[in-house]
Amino acid sequence: MFEFFPGDRAWSSTVNLALMAGGSLGDMERWLGPLRDLPAADPSAADPPPARLEAWAAAWAGMAHRQEELAALDLKAGYPLTAGARYLRASVYHASGQRQIPLGPAKSESYAAALQAFGNAVECASLPLERIHIDSPDGMMPGYLIAPDATDPRPVVIVYGGLDLTKELVYAVVGTAFARRGVTCLVVDTPGTGELIRLRGVPSRPDYEVPTAAIIDYLETRRDVDARHVAVLGISFGGYYAARAAAFEPRVSACVSWAGSWDCGAVWRRRWDGRSGYEPASWFLPWVLGTPTVEQALERLEEWTLADVWPRVTQPLLIVHGEDDREIPVADAHRAFEAAGSEDRTLRVFTAGEGGTEHMQTDDPGPALQLIAEWLSLRMPVEAHLPAPSPRAV
């Protein structure tokens, strides 16, 4: 993995995610580069010292605010689309930076700034999305619907982010990749993510077929969506959510796991016991899972296993993984592929030689995203003349 901060996987992975979502390496170097000169941290500690966190938060905030200043100048000059692009980048910076900030005012302010900047981007650039709200057992779930330019109802893919992604970051990553292929895309904050965890304290849950059912109930009320054809795409930890949805919600018609998940509890136990470079932080997992301590969170996470779930996934299935993924071992992707009950299933492992070998292909995400969108469009009734897919493993 490209390590902007050598030896610090947590900070470097955040930089890579921001680049994946449209950030600028030049911005990173100008604002984050000086942080490399900070005193080295103790890799065995559970949390970084406050001074490092303050410097981190200030750098990301400054980087985002600079984009907002430039956007205001673009608007004044009469360039609203240019300003919209600046605001979207500012939103990515605000949202990325707050991922490593512990709970408290600074984190809340950074997240609020991300939402505001994203709203400005929508207003200035008329981003092709519709903000929606979905009633569910966990309360209203906000999302963005990105629809293709079509008059007839279109199939839809629900995109679930990982443990610490927001719908705004997910939108910045996937953009119009699905809409360009005639598939409506829904990015949504669900239990444990985005607005639900940050503004309402709703933790994650193992039975993700419950929020999925609520989402499909909503989609069935829309005339512009063909709710008979609903796929699920899970990014990183969201691969668990997608598998659960496909296994236990019969209205799901296809499943994509962007990082093949097998046993989330085992993965996180290894990460905590062998942590280095402050990953994971002691506050993070209890916050997402709604427990007082890390140990209780790890015990709760033992429910997040897919060993008995994958055989119930019979829909067309795509698993995309990196050969050198250091978050979820590639062996887990192979286990998931072998255990799945789908006849039409594909496992795509990206290698170092071609790029995209890291987690979520953050070292080269473009080809993986395009592959996912293409694979999915071939399994949805987008165009009648498209050939039927044949089962294969890559």
UniProtKB/TrEMBL annotation:
One of its GO terms (molecular function) is hydrolase activity. Keywords: Hydrolase. Its EC number is 3.4.-.-. The keyword Oxidoreductase does not apply. It is an enzyme of class 3 (hydrolase). SUPFAM superfamilies: alpha/beta-Hydrolases. InterPro entries: AB_hydrolase_fold (IPR029058), FrsA-like (IPR010520), FrsA_esterase (IPR050261). Transmembrane segments: none annotated. It comes from the Bacteria. Belongs to the AB hydrolase superfamily. This is Alpha/beta hydrolase family protein. It comes from Streptosporangium amethystogenes subsp. fukuiense.
